[in-house]
Amino acid sequence: MNKFLSTLVSAFVLSAATSAIAADEYNQVPAGDQQYASCIAYSNRNYEGGNDRSPVRGQTKAQAFCTCMWNETPDDFRGGLAKFAETAKGKSTNRICEKHSDWSND
């Protein structure tokens, strides 16, 4: 029983560590991407704290949030990233990206 519990805990820790590492390794948004630029502008205009430092090296909270949204939405998504995060369909993606950028309403 102890061996099983130890294995289960080890697997959970490894899984959590792998997820945390992967979250910092999003694809870089191409220079001049209009969706990303619109997301930054909308986020900074409608929410407070977007220019604060995020846990992602070299990015503000708005940049980290929009990078996450850009990576987490389907490739064929053509709408506004920040506006999508406000919808019922975008709620789970919003939670992921708020956590990634350390930018939440809590």
Quick description:
With 106 residues, this protein is mainly α.
Layout: helices, strands, pairs:
Blueprint: H1 2-23, H2 34-46, H3 61-72, H4 81-85, H5 91-101
Word description of this protein:
The chain contains five helices and no strands. The protein is globular, with a radius of gyration of 16 Å. It starts with a helix and ends in a 5-residue tail after the last helix. With about 110 residues, it is mainly alpha-helical. The chain has helices at about 1-25, 35-45, 60-70, 80-85, 90-100. The longest helix is centred in the N-terminal third of the chain and has 22 residues, at about 1-25. Helix content is about 60%, strand content about 0%. The chain has one domain (about 1-100).
